[in-house]
Structure formats: C-alpha cells, structure tokens
Amino acid sequence: MGRVRLAWCLALCCWGCATPKDTQTEVGSPFVGNPGNITGARGLTGTLRCELQVQGEPPEVSWLRDGQILELADNTQTQVPLGEDWQDEWKIVSQLRISALQLSDAGEYQCMVHLEGRTFVSQPGFVGLEGLPYFLEEPEDRAVPANTPFNLSCQAQGPPEPVTLLWLQDAVPLSPVAGYSSQHSLQAPGLNKSSSFSCEAHNAKGVTTSRTATITVLPQRPHHLHVVSRHPTELEVAWTPGLSGIYPLTHCNLQAVLSDDGVGVWLGEADPPEEPLTLQVSVPPHQLRLEKLLPHTPYHIRVSCTSSQGPSPWTHWLPVETTEGVPLGPPENVSAMRNGSQALVRWQEPKLPLQGTLLGYRLAYRGQDTPEVLMDIGLTQEVTLELRGDRPVANLTVSVAAYTSAGDGPWSLPVPLEPWRPVSEPPPLAFSWPWWYVLLGALVAAACVLILALFLVHRRKKETRYGEVFEPTVERGELVVRYRVRKSYSRRTTEATLNSLGISEELKEKLRDVMVDRHKVALGKTLGEGEFGAVMEGQLNQDDSILKVAVKTMKIAICTRSELEDFLSEAVCMKEFDHPNVMRLIGVCFQGSDREGFPEPVVILPFMKHGDLHSFLLYSRLGDQPVFLPTQMLVKFMADIASGMEYLSTKRFIHRDLAARNCMLNENMSVCVADFGLSKKIYNGDYYRQGRIAKMPVKWIAIESLADRVYTSKSDVWSFGVTMWEIATRGQTPYPGVENSEIYDYLRQGNRLKQPVDCLDGLYALMSRCWELNPRDRPSFAELREDLENTLKALPPAQEPDEILYVNMDEGGSHLEPRGAAGGADPPTQPDPKDSCSCLTAADVHSAGRYVLCPSTAPGPTLSADRGCPAPPGQEDGA
Fold first, then answer.
1. How confident is the model at residue 392, as a pLDDT?
2. CB 740 within 8 A of CB 699
3. Are strands 806-810 and 298-307 parallel, antiparallel or unpaired?
4. Do 809 and 662 share a domain, yes or no?
5. CA–CA dist 21, 108 (Å, integer)
6. Helix 631-650 and helix 713-728: axis angle, to 10°?
7. Does the model's pTM come out above 0.70?
8. N or C: which end of the chain has fewer CB within 10 A?
9. Is residue 261 within 8 Å of 267, Cβ to Cβ?
C-alpha cells in the first residue's frame, strides 16, 4: 500500500510539469520556447507549451506528434503584440492540452510554423505514460456447478512493464500450484461453496486491484432420469441428483410437455414448442408420480434441482409415453332391423375417448331361448346377420362394444330387433323464423342507425391546426361559429423544438411522452438560482384546474450539450416514478431564450412547500427562532426516505447522490427523494461502474465506491446511513474536522460517524449497519423501512407543534417563518473551513464539505471538484 501511495504522489507532482529542453535551436528559427517532457499516469491531464516571436502578421502554429500533424488537437494560441503597430514584433504562445492521458498519446511532440516560404520546427518534447497497471480485462461474476472446473480471465498492462498478476480467492492470495495458474487465465479445479475472486496487477509503480467476481456454486445437473412405472393416466419417474457442494438441495422441479409430432424429439437444452407444465417436489425422495395424463400419449420430461444458491441446469428432455387403456364409452346410436331371414345392425364410434388405438368392434346377440353369440366384426360399423331356422327367433337383442389392445370397452345397451320399415321422404318443413333470429336482426339494425348518426355528427365538425370545431348554430336569428381549442400541443412544433436541441435520438423519443404545452405554464417568483439554472414558482393550467408547481429552468447559453443532456435525462429518469416518497415528473416544455432560435428546456415538478430537508433541519437549529423537532418527526423523515429508496431499488435505480439536501418536504411534512442527476438504471446485473472520474459527494459515498467507482443499491444504503446521521444531528456536516481528501483513509482505518447527542441507541445501531465494510452485510431498504416504522410505532405520540417550520427564500434574504410561502432553494450556511476550498463564494457555501475541491497529494483515490467550482490550473478533470 505504501508503494501505491508513493506512485500516486509522484504522478500528481510530475504530471503537467513541462521542463523546457536545453537544446540549440535552428538558426533563424522564431521559437524561443520549446515543448518540455511530460511523464504521467493514465487518465491524468497535462499541457505542452511552445513560444515564438515573429515580425508582421502572426502565423498559425501546428503541432506534430512523431512527425505527423495533429488534425484535431486541443490546442489554444495566444498572440500578444510587442509594439504599438501591428507590423511590429508579436509574441505567440501555443498550448497543447492532453486530457485523459492514454498509451496512444505517448511520443515526440513539436511545434511547426510556416514563415516567408520556410517551415520551422521547434525542438522536440516527449510525453510518456507511466503509472499503476491498467486492467484490460477483469474477472466476471459466474455461476458454476459444484466440483466442476472453470476458468477466469484477468489482463493488465503498464507502462512500466513488466506487469505480473496475483490471483486472490476470498481475499487470500493463491499460489500457482494445485491446479491454479498465475497467468491471465485462472484454471480453478472446482468449488464446493460460493467464493469471490479478484486479481492484483503489480509493476514498478505499485499495485492495482481488479473488481471482485462472485462465483456462485449451483447444484450439478441431475442424471439417470427414468420411468419407474407406466399406466394409462399416470407415470412414475425417478432421478439421481448431482452434487451441490455444502448447500443441501431444497427442492426439485419437473417439467412435462406433450410431444409434437411435427417437431419430433428435442435435443440438448432446446425448448419445447409449447409452455411446459412445471411441478415442484420436495426431496428426498427423488421421485414423482405424474397424474391426470392422457392415455397412449407421448410426453417429454426434464428435471432441475435447487439449493439455496440457485437451480441446477436442466436434464436433457426424456421422451416417455403412457400406456393404452380400454375405451371409456360404448358405441353410439346402435340400431337393428329385420328383413326376412336377415338382420341389419348399424352403430357409430364412441363419443368418449378411446384411450388408445381402436382395433375393432365386438357384437353379441341372443334370443329369449337361445344362447348368446359373440362376433369380432373388425373396424366396420355395419354388419348383416343371417337368421336361420323355420321359426323366427323370439325377442332377439343386439349389443356392441369397442376394443383396443388393452381390452374391451363397455357394451351398449341391448337393442331389440325391429321389423323392416321402408324409408320415405319426409314432408318439407313449413318456413319459420326462430325468435333469436328476430332479436339479432333488430340489434344489427340499431347498430347501423347509431353508426350513421355518429358519422353525420362528425361531418358537421371541421378539424383545424388549432382545434376542432366551427359548429354553426343559430342564436337570436344569427349564424354563430363556436370554436373549441385543441387540448394537446402541436406535435409538429414539438418535433422541430426537439430537433433543434442537438440531443440524442433515444433521449428525444423519451421526451415526446412527457411534453406539455408551454402556453399552459405561467412562471412566478424565483425560489432559488444557481450558476447553471434556477427554480421558479409556477402555475400549470390543466383542463379543469390550476396546479401550483415548481419550474426548473436551465441557462442554455452557458451550458454544454453534455450538461443539457444530463439536465433532460434527469427529467426522463423521473417520469418512470410513481410513489408518494419519490419526486415525480409532471412534464417538460420549452420556452424562448436569449440565444436566437434555440429553445430553453423547462422541467415541471410538484411544488414542495417546505423546501429541502437539509435547509429545514438547519434552520430548526440555527434560525432566528430555533424550533425543537421531536424524535418522532425525525424518525418519520428517515422512514419516508427508506420507503422511497425501497421503491427505487425495486425499479433497479441507483441514486448515487442520496443526502438530506436532495430530499424535499411537501405540505404534509412527508419527505420525497429528489435530484436524480446522478441516478443510473441498471438493465443487466446489479451494479454500475462509473466510466470516468466525475464530481461526486465524497462524504456520502460508500467506501467501495471511493475505491473502485462501483455503485450498487448497497452503496445507496451507505449514503442513507449518512443521511440518517444528518437528520439525527439536525443538519450538521458529516465527519466534522476531517478533510475530503482524508475521507478514504479515515474510513479504511475503521472510523465511522460518531453517535449524535440525544440519538436513540437503536437508531445509531441501524446507521452503523449501513456502514458495514462488506456491502452484503448491510441491510436492504425494505429492512430499513420496516425497522424505522417499528421504531416509530414504539415511540410515544409526539405533541403537535403550534407552528410548522419552513424555509422562505425571498430576495430580501432567507429566514424562518410559520406556514406561508413556498420554499425549495438552498439557504446560505456557514461552511466548515476544513470542508471547503478557497474558490468558494458566498453563493456556494451551502455546498461546502460535499465534494473534493482542492488538489491533494494524500494517498488513496482522488476525486473531482465541487459543481460550479473550477479546479486549480493543471488539475482540471480530476487531475
């Protein structure tokens, strides 16, 4: 760790220090200052400088790298006349800025100018990359079967080279023996419990640690899936479970699906053509009886077993088939007619299921005094019987049964032999209409009349670009045209406004759903104003009412496109929220701005009567008339925030900037989580890795986020613990006396925020759980909300105060008053000298202590400056 700190100090001290080369310059060369040499760590920023003096019109200075002209170089040129006449001597200074140093930036740099037909080149300067190892590939989370070999990859590079790798399992270094490799690929022989893996990259400058990959051990695939017994409607199957490590199996799932003759047998892990039936069975035993199946029907089945770590892979699909059964019903419509010495017997196939393949029919007949005669008829459904003898058989009856390979089905009821009746044509039926035909015709006629009436009414209206109408009516004998204004805004106008912003297509598509007609928004007094925008009181004219709102504007003339997209992305982020403790979005519109033809975005939010929670707490303690806030109210604030954050976590949103200043109080004294400028939605996985060094609230950030810039819902839990501490102290700045640059080392030494005065022991214990070193040991927001609600129920009811405190931000100053005008802007506070930097002004003091502002040579991660506060020269962008 000491080598890492020394490497960071050397990199920060050396980077940006360009030492002029003490070399001879070409005779007649205008260059009086040449580029220096720069060696720095990856991602930092530095500047190269050339200086020359010329007579006459100043030339354009170009920069070369390794002899090639830099076309898109980030260079600036300053020209200063050395005399009163423009034809006199000029001094020219050209600076080349290299931001976020990469390996491709290393090389030889020179300045070049063209004067009077000649080309002059400065002496070269050199830029080199040298720092801690940089990871090209890091180990990823995986789920592997128990006791099954697997591979992990990790790759890093310098300079300086060489870079060696060391693998760690559960934070313990692995030696390159017993099946493990210390190269780019880790070949693990198998695990019987879930573990974490990471790798360290070492070079001459120090050590860099990769992300920690979690390897989850799942049960192995079950095997030997087979049928124990088969019946027409039941199958009994069994299987052998695979190894599951130290985690016992909790249950197994069996899926069964009807086989499709058109698809055939599935191979491997292919899914069936229809949704399978899934059955869950407790184990042991590893056996299951499937009931209520179709007889003589092919199925496919597969099995997966589950432990506390998750489910095993499915077995391959196994084809099975139920056995045949006897027919469930007798043949239908059996008839028997006698014609002389013959009898004609007819029947139809049974209506009930056959439960197999029909092989034929059996017929039985008998007379009053004759024995029964059985006949196998085959598949025909008609047979002629020969009745022999001089005398007719008395009371002859006939029965028929269907049979399959499983046996005979039930016999039909005995049918007596009837004399032959010649078939004659039936008389034609008289024409008649059933009553429901008449009813249906009447309904169809009524529907046609209604459609025709609506069509005629619609034709009397005329739609225009601005609305629908022009309905002529007669009043007092005169023809009057009535007009109804269109309720929605013109989409074509909105498209033109969005296209003129120069934002991404994805952001445009999301904004179209939340657009509001700008003519329905009226702006009032300013509630708060900052460097990049303001929050104003406003009114939104709805269809049947006027809603008081807060209008968030942006000074588009001084903002970059990236800042504009961040502003609108925050609004789009809020449109997905619908929870009483989360700030929701009402809409977005655009208004004219000072920049010609360029619209200014406006975000419409609910009006929060009592302003932000930090101002409320601060003025309750330091205002002109301090007000005591009971513990019940403070716990209620904490529970509201936990409820809102629980909702955000279920929506897979990571806030990344949770603090009392970003929570608002509405008229019911309920807290709403707000300010989603740093929020991220996680689509895959459960963490977000920040890709670049950004401006972040240091004293509210979790320790793992300070080290690796990785954010999860559990890092929001850390910030919630700090927010609880803010509420318990009624607005104090966290870690008093500890500078921002010292926070990381302070936390690594095991230090945490101290228990506030008059804070319940249970509340502080809950805060402390939020600051556990291992994120997995921290509670979820659901647990925090439940604990806080239980704590609130255990407290005695608080006495209602006579006056409710709120913050009123007027031009005349900020003060405390009872119920009245709205709040919602940051109040000025006295900053902690240890938590601020020299560039803070009176308008910025409310943000003191929240961000690292000044450069520091202290070891550990270096973060960026406060919003709106420029970094010192040579240290921009997190340098």
1. 55
2. yes
3. unpaired
4. yes
5. 13
6. 170
7. no
8. N
9. no
**pLDDT top residue among 533 and 489:** 533
CA distance 223 to 491: 61
Q: Six-digit token pair at 658? A: 């949770």
- Least confident segment among 67-76, 191-200, 452-461, 802-811: 802-811
Structure tokens at 672: 């709403």
Give the SS3 label for residue 10: helix
SS3 775: helix
CA 448 to chain centre: 50
**At which residue do the structure tokens 């603090």 appear?**
659
Whether 203 and 294 share a structural domain:
no
Tokens of 342: 């013959």
Residue 22 confidence class, pLDDT cut points 50, 70, 90: very low
Q: What is the pLDDT of residues 405-432, one digit of tens each?
A: 888 889 999 988 877 655 454 554 444 4
At 710, which CATH number? 1.10.510.10
653 and 799 together in one domain? yes
Q: Please give the structure tokens belonging to residue 138.
A: 């890091």
657 is an active site residue: yes
For residues 516 and 153, what is the distance between their CA atoms, to the nearest angstrom? 50
Residues 643 and 791 in one domain: yes
Whether 471 is in a domain gets the answer no
State which of 606, 636, 665 marks the end of a domain. Answer: 606
Are the CB atoms for 368 and 432 separated by under 8 Å? no
> Does 240 fall in a domain?
yes
Longest dimension (CA), the chain: 152
Q: Is residue 14 part of a domain?
A: yes
Cβ neighbours for 299, distance < 8 A, ≥ 6 positions apart? 235, 256, 257, 258, 259, 293, 319, 320, 321, 322
**Domain match, 709 and 813 both:** yes
Q: Do 667 and 819 touch, CB atoms closer than 8 A?
A: no
* C-alpha of 253 from chain center: 29
pLDDT of residue 731: 92
- pLDDT for position 499: 62
Laid out side by side, the sheet with 223-230 consists of: 223-230, 235-240, 287-290
- In residues, how long is the chain? 879
Does 459 map to a domain?
A: no
The pLDDT assigned to 271 comes to: 54
Say if residue 441 is exposed, middle or buried (CB neighbours under 10 Å; 0-12, 13-18, 19+).
Answer: exposed
Examine the pLDDT at 638 and tell me if it is beyond 80: yes
* CA dist., res. 483 & res. 465, Å (int): 12
User: Which residue range forms the structural domain that includes residue 414?
Assistant: 332-419
Give the count of domains, the chain.
6
Catalytic residue among 657, 675, 716, 844: 657
Q: Tell me the CATH number at 302.
A: 2.60.40.10
615 near 624, Cβ under 8 Å? Answer: no
**Structure confidence at residue 540 (pLDDT):** 87
Residue type, 877: D
Q: Is pLDDT larger for residue 289 or for residue 391?
A: 289
What is the mean predicted confidence (pLDDT) over 689-707?
71
Q: Are residues 41 and 158 in the same domain?
A: no
Mean pLDDT, residues 627-655:
91
